[in-house]
Amino acid sequence: MTTATAPEVTPGTTGERSSRARVAHLVQRQGALVILVFAAVAATVAFDSFGTQRNLTSIAVQASFLAVVALGMTFVIMGGGIDLSVGSVFALGGVLAAWGSQHGLLVALALPLAVCGAIGLVQGLVIARGGLPPFIVTLAGLLFARGLLLLITDEGSTTYKVPPGAAFREIAQGKLLGLNYTVWVVIVLFLLGGLVLHRTSYGSTTLAVGGQEDAAQLMGLPVMRSKVIAYVTSSLLAALGGIMIASYTSSGVTILGVGMELEVISAVVLGGTLLTGGAGTVLGTLVGVLLLQVIKNIINQVGSLNSNWQAVVSGVILLVVVTAQQWLARVERR
Amino acid sequence: MTDPTITVTEPRTATVLETAGVTKSFGGVHALRGVDFSLAEGEVHALVGENGAGKSTLIKVLTGVHRPDGGEVRYRGGRVDFAQPAAAQRAGISTIYQEVNLVPLLSVARNIYLGREPRRYGLIDVPTMERDARELVERLGVHIDVREDLGRLGLGAQQMVALARAMSVDSRVVIMDEPTSSLEAREVATLFDVSRSLRDQGVGLVFVSHRLDELWQLCDRVTVLRDGRDVHTGRMDGLTRTGLVSHMLGRDAGELARDGATEFGESHLQGREPVLSVAGIDARNTLRGVGLTVRPGEVLGLGGLLGSGRSETVKAIYGALPTQAGEVIVDGRPVHRNSVRHALRSGVALLSEDRKAEGIIPDLSVRDNIALAVLPRMSRMGIVSESRIDKLVETFMGKLRIKASSPRQLVRELSGGNQQKVLIARWLCTEPRVFLLDEPTRGIDVGAKAEVQSLIDELAEQGLAVVLISSEMDELVEGADRIVVLRDGAVEAELDGADLTSSALLAALAGDIAQADAAAQEEDR
C-alpha cells in the first residue's frame, strides 16, 4: 500500500543526467590518463628512442619506487589525512636495508619495515587518538626520520654498500618475463590496494572517514583504527620503496627522498583523488605516477633541456589538471 | 482471556524507550531538570518546545551522545547507559538528523550498509549489497539509482536513504530531529508515508519539528518540554493548536499581559510614509512571500514560534539570506537583493540574534568595537582620524549609558547588557534609517533588559524605523506599535490597536486564525 500511494521522490539528477555531465565525470576522474596517453603518443612520434622496449622498461622501473610510496599516500589522503614523512621514511628505509643486507636478506627486509612501521604507528596513534592535525604530526615524522638517518650515517658521509652477490640485489635487479621484480611488486600491490579499497569494510570506512568524518563516527565505524592503519601502511610502503631503491642502487643513498612527499602527493592528486579525501582510485594514482615519470623521460630525451625543466613542467601540469578537475566537477553538478 | 464485557479502548502497547527523572546540566546551566518521557512501540511521538527547552539535550541523552547526570534511561525494559552513539545504534536506536549525516561521496548502497556490508569470501559482495539496497529503497517508495553518489541526490532523497539505513539495521526506535526542515512538500509526504509504515511495523518514532501542522498529520502523542521539564504529555487528537502553544510558552490563552512588565512607553509614530517596505520575499524552504512596512518612529514587532522565519526575514531584508524573489524599499529607493553592502549603504542595520558569533569582538576595547563600523567613513585616504573617533565614541557611550571604566576597557569585561549596548552603538554610528533588532534582550539580566528596552523606545522616538524580534510575548505586545506574526515562513496575521493583546498574539502564533479560515473555505466548496 505504502509503496503504491507514496509520491515518488525524484532525486535531482538521476535519469536526466546529461551526456555532457557524464563526459565531464569521466574526464574529471581520468584526466591524467588522457594526458598520459597523449604525451606518450606524442613522445613516440617525436623521439625514436622513446618507444623502445629499453626506454619503456626504464620508465616502469623508475616509476615503481614512486608508485609504491604513492599507494600508501592514496589511502592516507582518501581518509582525509596527509603524510609528509614519506620522503624521509623512504630514505631511512633504504639506508637501513643497505646496512641490513650485510647481515642477510631477512635483516635487510625486516629491519627497515620494523623501524618505519613503528614510525607510522606512532604518527597514526597521535593523529587518531590525540586528534592532532596530520600535517604537523607527519612534519615531525619527516624531521625525526631524516634526523635518524643522518645519525646512523655520520651526517650522511657513510654510504652502506650492499655486498656483491647478495640475494638482496635480486629484489630490484632480478627479472621475470623481462620485467624487474619491482614492477611486478607494484602490479600486485596496486591490484591488492584496489581490492582493499573497494571490497573491504576497511576500504569503505577509509572513504567514509575522508568524506564525512562526523557521519562515520555517528554510524559507529572504527574511525580511529582506520586512521592508524592508513599511516602504518603509508610508512611501511615508503620503507618498501626504500628497500627497492637500495636494492636497485646496491647502496643506501642518504640524499634520496628529499621533497619526495610532494612529488607523491602530486601523483595522487593527478590521479583524481580528492585532496580533501573521500574519493579516488588506486589506478588513478598509478596513472599519476606514470605521467610524472613520462614527463621526466621526455625532458631527458630533449638532450638540450636543463633537467630542472621537469619540475617546472610537472608543476604546470599539476595546476592545469587540478583546475580542470575543479571546473569539470562544477560542470558535472549542473 | 479477558472478560468479554470489558472493551479495550486502546491497544495495549509496550513501552520501548523511556526516561525517568533525567537531569543534565552544562557548566551550571540546567538543560534538563528531571524529564519523564516514554515512547511506546508502534507510535509516532512528537517532542516539542521552544528554543532552550531541552529537546536536543534529551535526544542526545537518548542516543548516547550525552550521559545523563541523574535519572535513568530504560530501553526495552532494562536500564541502559550508552557510552557513545555507536552503542545506542547497535542496540537498535537510530537517529535521523536535520543535517543528513551520511557520506556524500559514497554511493547510496554503500551508505546504507556502511560498516555492515554483506560479504562473500571475506570481501564485500557488491552485487548483493546493491540488490538489497534497491529492494530497501523501493519498499520506501523512493526511486533512485543505488549506485549513484549520495551527494548527487536531493536532500529529500538523502533523508530517505538515512531512513533506509535505519530500517536496514532493524531499529526498534527511530528518532527524527527536524527531518523536514529542508524538504519540499512532496518529499515531506513521502517521509511521512515511510514513517507510518515503520510505525505499523511496531517501530517507535520520536518526531521533532517546528512545523506544528506536521505534528497533527503524523503524530499519535506529544510531549512538550519547557525550561528543561516535561510540562505536558498526551494524545495529539483533542489538543488544539492554541492549547499546544500555550503549553510551549507557558501561558494560558486567557491570561493578559500585566501592564508595565516592561520598560516600553507609548507609541511614537511620526509620519505616514513607510521608511521600510518589504514585499513578496521568497527564500528557499524558509520564507514564502513575506511582506511588511515600517513607518518612521514605529516599532514593528515580528512574532512567531521557532522556525517561523522571523530571523530569516530580517536577514533577508539585510541581504544576508539568499532570496529568490522579493522587494525591499528603503526611503523610496529599492535595495539590491542579496547584497549586505547595499543594504548597509541604504541605511539598514541588523543587530543579530547571536551577538557572540556575529558581532562583538571580545578582545577589542569598547572604543574599537564601536568604531569598527565607521572606520571607512572616518578615514581619509586610509588614515584614520583618531580624534574624530574618540569624540564619536564618547558621545555614544554617554547617550546609551554604557557602563565601562573607560573607552579603552575590553568588551569582554563588560556585562551582557553593556555588550549589547556597545553593539547597538556601533550600528547607530552608521546612522541607520531602519534598525532590525533580533532578540536584543536575550541573555542579559533584568536591569539591563529594562535599559535596552527603553533605549529601543528612544531610538524610535528619534524617528528610526525599528523591527523588533522577541520570543517574550510581553516584550512584543508592549514594545511594539504593531505586530506582524509569521508562521511557517509566511505572514499569518497583523495585530494593532485593540488587537494588540497577548491572547490575540497567542492565537495568531498557533495559527488558529488560518485554521478557521481554511475550515470555512473547505465548507464553501
Automatic annotation (TrEMBL), chain B:
Signal peptide from the UniProt entry: none
InterPro entries: AAA+_ATPase, ABC_carbohydrate_import_ATPase, ABC_transporter-like_ATP-bd, ABC_transporter-like_CS, P-loop_NTPase
PROSITE patterns reported for this sequence: ABC_TRANSPORTER_1 (PS00211), ABC_TRANSPORTER_2 (PS50893)
Database matches in CDD domains: ABC_Carb_Monos_I, ABC_Carb_Monos_II
Keyword Repeat found: yes
Gene Ontology CC entries for this record: plasma membrane
Subcellular location: Cell membrane
SUPFAM superfamilies for this protein: P-loop containing nucleoside triphosphate hydrolases (SSF52540)
Keywords for this protein: ATP-binding, Cell membrane, Membrane, Nucleotide-binding, Repeat, Translocase, Transport
Membrane topology of this protein: Peripheral membrane protein
Residue ranges occupied by any ABC transporter domain in the UniProt entry: 17-252, 269-513
Molecular function via GO: ATP binding; ATP hydrolysis activity
Primary localisation category: membrane
PANTHER family recorded: CARBOHYDRATE TRANSPORT ATP-BINDING PROTEIN MG119-RELATED, GALACTOFURANOSE TRANSPORTER ATP-BINDING PROTEIN YTFR
UniProt protein name: Ribose ABC transport system, ATP-binding protein RbsA
